[in-house]
Amino acid sequence: MSIQEKKQDPKPTFYLTTPIYYVNARPHLGHTYTTVAADAVARWKRMRGFDVLFLTGTDEHGQKIERSAAKAGKTPQEFAAEVSSEFRGLWDRMGLTYDDYIRTTEPRHKRGVQHLFSELRKRGFIYKGTYSGQYCVWDELYVEGSPGTPCPDCGRITETVSEENYFFKLSAFERKLLEYYEQHPDFIRPEARRNEVMAFVQGGLRDLSISRTSFNWGIPVPGDEKHVIYVWMDALANYITALGYGSKDCANFNQYWPADVHLIGKEISRFHCVYWPAFLMAAGLPLPKSIVAHGWLLFEQSKMSKSRGNIVRAETVLDVLGADALRYFLLREVTFGQDGSFSFDALVQRYNADLANGYGNLVSRTLAMIVKYFDGVVPEPADVQGLLNNLGLTPGPDDPDGWWRAAASETLADSIANEFAIHTDKFVEFFGMLDFSRALGTAQWLIANIDSVLTEIAPWKQPQGFSDDAQLATRATILYGAAEAIRIITALVYPVIPDAAAKVWQQLGLGDITQADLKDLQWGGLKPGTKLGELGPVFPRAEKEAIERMQNMEEDRVATATGEAQSATADQDAVPNSKISGPAEQPPPPHVPEPFSATGLSPEQEADAVAQQAAANRQVGPVSAVFDPLPPPQPLVGPVTSAVPREPKISIEDFAKVELRVAIVRVAERVPKADRLLRLEVDLGYEQRQIVAGIAEAYTPESLIGRKVVIVANLAPRKLRGLESNGMIVAASVGEKGKPVLAGFLEDAEIGARLK
Ligand code: MSP
User: Quick check: 690 and 565 in contact, CB under 8 A?
Assistant: First the structure.
């Protein structure tokens, strides 16, 4: 349904957004997590009678994107369009039900952002000044500190910027924001994020630089086009520009704003909970009703992200297990709001336990029995207790089949219906709180119980002393009960596993689930006499081999993308993240004020802070600043014309963290069923170790034996195709396809020697 059509709809509205994703990286499971959660909420709200507007999109401006495009040899426009359509293509392939997809390069957005800027300027909240200080291009964040200061969010070394900028009077909103948080305890969820944000604001807000002049990939400041608007102001405004803010047609804005929920990942809380409400207050606009921050999806112990090279593509899971399996896993396995780990083992285990052996098995055994005993027509439940009484069969100690009858009568007469009512309410309550995991746990509990009742009562058996009538009545009752239970469970889980739920709905003979009233969760809603639809498997069991297949698909992708199987772990972007190193994430320090020197710290204190940060960074994970560099920085002042990459500066300490050594290849062989991988045994003089390298397309095994190579010796071990790889061979990545060319020496170098 288009937004235009929705306007006629008298239902209550529900406006839900995801962050708009940066187009410097292709979509991975981390992005999928947020979008899937939003899709589940959107479906849930629709099925409960709301007129939902679900918005997602891409964030396409800024220096980071400009640099990524240059690195890829493309214009920012081409590059952004390509990656944006990958995001959209993935969401479409997964059947996500977003209603609008905004790109920040669209004219509707540009117009709205310029309008917002002009409005803030008109209201006296913008002034011109000079910014001189540090900037993290990766996080698009102004950072307090001296040159060389690492970014508090990602740990990368910040760049020094000295520019004439426009500033937003953020400091004027400190008190108003704190009052607002106090008066609206549900504005930021969960509580932990709210506390962090409040502590950050209580620490003092400084005015915020909201324009840049040293590059031009952005939205020009109206009337002063050499400035482009700060990318976070540009991006946050998407939530209103998509509704027509800044255009003549305000109907959608009036109808849907303020948003009910901005769903975000926790690392962007500050932008959403401090800057965004301040911009809105300054513009005289209502604030969103709530901002809900979820935790991170971790892979191999750290946040899944391109920069760490530890990403998994949704496509891999879709190809092997399908979208519902992925959706279910993400929402069941990870407690919303907290960090949770992804692994292929856990995915397959969860799939088999809950979906194949749980829900899928209950559906197929129940419906198969209805076909067998009732010609595929939902039977009429009988009054089993009454029947038993008529037969004079009262369960008791003298009755050898008493357990059976007791189970049948008690369970069927009252228990199922009561239990269902209680658990259905619980599911609804949990889902409403976005506690997907507990809601799905409740559904799983119901499934397991119905399943064990079926097994206990065994409708395929005829117990001694039972007439055919009694047997038939009992069988009809238990199968009706199981089918009705399936109907209710299916309605509940539809927002999470929509494809499977649609299939089961058809199999129950209920037609198209998208047309059904899924609010009807009253026991007894399934009409006896309903003819079942065509039966078929819902969740076939996944074999163990599925895990290996998915792992291999990802390893092949990594090897292909880099020409070096392990290079992802050595990505320079994988600078340690102070946030990830400790359990409690600290709110980042306030933005740099103008003038820059007013940090509030003495030079000694600043130096200490930098040293402490560097020490904290050293404690976490491998750093490689040499192999896959950050996008090149642009000149700090003046128009950007050059696309020639320049490396950002790193300190000698950063470089020293990478242990590069000379090694000689002793053994080299192909890895079976992996076209790009070679298994090498390299000798460092003091030790021999195995390395798996993605260089088989460029080097034959024979050509490598006896050759001296450079390895990164202190990389954490990693498994590739079941083989442990201890280190990485250093190679240049040449040409468009990234052909690996091994690093070597013109003069002889002793094995084991360290490169410094
Ligand atoms: N463009 C900004 C957001 C602007 S919104 C006005 C941005 N983009 S991003 O591409 O970096 O995406 C960030 C969002 O992607 C996170 O907030 C989160 O929702 C999702 N995730 C990306 N990686 C993630 C994990 N590993 N785990 C969970 N979510 C993650 O920031």
Answer: no
The CA 459 to ligand 1 mean position distance, Å, reads 51
**Which of 137, 268, 301, 341 has the most ligand 1 atoms within 8 A of CB, as the residue to mutate?**
268
* pLDDT of 574 higher than 50: no
Where does the pLDDT of residue 528 fall: very low under 50, low under 70, confident under 90, or very high at 90 and above?
Answer: very high
- Pull the structure tokens for residue 64: 């980071």
Residue 296 CB less than 6 A away from ligand 1: yes
Q: What is the pLDDT of residue 147?
A: 84
Any alpha helices (H) in 494-623, and if so which ranges?
498-507, 545-562, 578-581, 603-618
Comparing CA positions, the residue from 97, 13, 94, 112 lying closest to residue 55 is: 97
Alpha-carbon gap, residue 151 to 137, rounded angstroms: 9
Residue whose pair of structure tokens reads 């959107």 in the numeric block: 42
Tell which atom from ligand 1 comes closest to the C-alpha of 34.
Answer: 19
**Average of pLDDT values for 279-297?**
98
- The alpha carbon of 264 and the centre of ligand 1 are apart by a number of angstroms equal to 7
Residue 436: the pLDDT is 98
What DSSP state is assigned to residue 735?
T
**What would the pLDDT profile of 15-45 be if each residue is shown by its tens digit?**
999 999 999 989 999 999 999 999 999 999 9
The answer to whether the CB of 34 is under 6 A from ligand 1 is yes
Tokens of 92: 């479409």
Phi, psi dihedrals of residue 261, rounded to the nearest 5°:
-140, 125
Q: Which atom of ligand 1 is nearest to the CA of 263?
A: 19
Instruction: Map residue 58 onto helix, strand or coil.
Output: strand
> Is 235 touching ligand 1 by the criterion CB < 6 Å?
yes
Whether 33 and 300 have beta carbons less than 8 Å apart is answered as no
Cis peptide, bond prior to residue 379, ω within 30 of zero:
no
312 lines ligand 1 (CB under 6 A): no
Distance from Cα 327 to the centre of ligand 1, integer Å: 17
Is the CB of residue 297 below 6 angstroms from any atom belonging to ligand 1? yes
Backbone CA torsion sign across 133, 138, 139, 140: positive
Q: Which of 9 and 702 is assigned the larger pLDDT?
A: 702
Q: Tell me the C-alpha distance between 296 and 311, whole Å.
A: 12
**Torsion angles phi and psi, residue 317, rounded to 5:** -70, -40
How far is C-alpha 581 from the chain's CA centre? 20
- Give, using CA atoms, the residue closest to atom 25 of ligand 1: 30
Q: How many helices (H) and strands (E) does the chain have?
A: 27, 27
Atom 18 in ligand 1: which residue has the minimum CA distance?
265
Report the nearest-CA residue for atom 23 of ligand 1.
30
- Whether a cis peptide bond, with omega within 30° of 0, leads into 717 is no
Please give the Cα distance from 524 to 267 (Å, whole number). 46
- Ligand 1 centroid distance, CA of 65 (Å): 15
Q: How far is CA 627 from CA 432, 521, 657, in A?
A: 46, 57, 13
Cis peptide before 286 (omega within 30 of 0): no
**Domains assigned to the chain:** 3-295 (3.40.50.620), 324-515 (1.10.730.10), 603-755 (2.40.50.140)
Q: Is the pTM for the entire model greater than 0.85? A: no
